[in-house]
Structures are given as structure tokens and as C-alpha cells.
């Protein structure tokens, strides 16, 4: 079986992760809380991340969008739901099975504050659902 992905949808889904992250971690939203929870100084935050962090983030967002599009297509061909419904449900299940479980395990062993775990998990849920919505607009 060939798996079709809409590359414009993948690209826009990857971009959407930056929009969600920019809003989520804005100082007036959750950015200041996040900074305090991870123990980062304001001066360090103002400097911004190393350029390699941006490269890895772009690659990660694109890979996440592609895999989500790929799995959405497989789910669509198997379950006979509408394309948008499949994209959103796939996003939710991918978050539950992979993102949330990884975040909970990771943060528990690192003894991170529960607020930080909720903040990270919430960002990932918003990101994946937005990616799923964007992919749902671009059926292959």
C-alpha cells in the first residue's frame, strides 16, 4: 500500500507548532511560569537558545508533522471515518500513547514539579491537535 501525504499540509502543520509554542510560552501566557519552573534566569531567557536548538526544533516539528500525516493516512484507510475526524483522533491518540506517557515517565523520574509536567503536556496536546487540524484541511 502506498501512503499519500499532502506535503503542503505537512509543512503548514510543522509551522503551526511554532505558532502554538510562541503563544503558549509567551511571557503573558505561560512563559514566565515555565521560566521559573525550570529555574532559568531572565538574562538567560533574553539571550535565547543556541542556534542548534532552532535547527533541531525545525527538524523535529517537520518529522512530527510527517509522521502524524503518515499515521493519519493509515488510520483513514483502515477506519472509514471522515478525514478531519481521523486527523484529530490520530493526533489525540498519538499524544496519549507517545507524548503524555513519555512526559509523565520522564518528569516523574526527574522529579519535576507537577505544574511543569502539566505545562509541557498541555503544550504538546495543543500542538498535536493543531497539527492534526491543519493536516485535516489538506487531505492527500
Keywords:
83% helix; mainly alpha; 6 helices; 140 residues
Structural class: mainly alpha
- What is the count of β-strands? 0
Please compute the radius of gyration using only Cα atoms: 16 Å
User: How many domains?
Assistant: 1
In whole angstroms, the N-to-C terminal distance is 14 Å
Q: What would the principal axes of the Cα set say about the shape? A: globular
- What is the ordering of alpha helices and beta strands? HHHHHH
> What composes the largest sheet?
none
Please estimate the helix content: over 70%
Overall pLDDT:
95
**Discrete helix count:** 6
Low-confidence stretches: none
Strand content: under 5%
Can you put this structure into words, describing what you see?
With 140 residues, this protein is mainly α. It has one domain (7-137). The chain is 83% helix and 0% strand. The chain contains 6 helices and no strands. 23% of the residues are buried.
Helix and strand arrangement:
Elements: H1 7-24, H2 27-38, H3 42-47, H4 51-79, H5 83-109, H6 114-137
Summary, kept brief:
This protein is an all-alpha fold and 140 residues long. It has helices spanning 7-24, 27-38, 42-47, 51-79, 83-109, 114-137.
Amino acid at each position: 500500500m502506498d501512503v499519500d501525504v499532502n506535503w503542503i499540509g505537512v509543512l503548514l502543520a510543522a509551522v503551526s507548532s511554532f505558532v502554538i509554542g510562541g503563544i503558549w510560552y509567551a511571557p503573558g501566557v505561560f512563559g514566565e511560569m515555565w521560566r521559573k519552573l525550570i529555574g532559568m534566569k531572565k538574562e538567560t531567557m533574553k539571550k535565547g537558545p543556541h542556534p542548534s536548538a532552532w535547527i533541531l526544533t525545525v527538524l523535529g516539528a517537520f518529522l512530527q508533522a510527517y509522521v502524524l500525516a503518515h499515521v493519519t493516512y493509515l488510520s483513514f484507510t483502515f477506519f472509514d471515518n471522515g478525514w478531519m475526524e481521523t486527523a484529530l483522533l490520530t493526533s489525540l491518540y498519538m499524544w496519549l500513547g507517545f507524548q503524555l506517557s513519555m512526559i509523565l515517565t520522564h518528569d516523574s523520574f526527574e522529579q519535576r514539579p507537577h505544574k511543569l509536567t502539566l505545562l509541557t503536556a498541555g503544550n504538546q496536546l495543543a500542538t498535536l491537535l493543531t497539527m492534526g487540524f491543519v493536516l485535516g484541511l489538506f487531505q492527500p
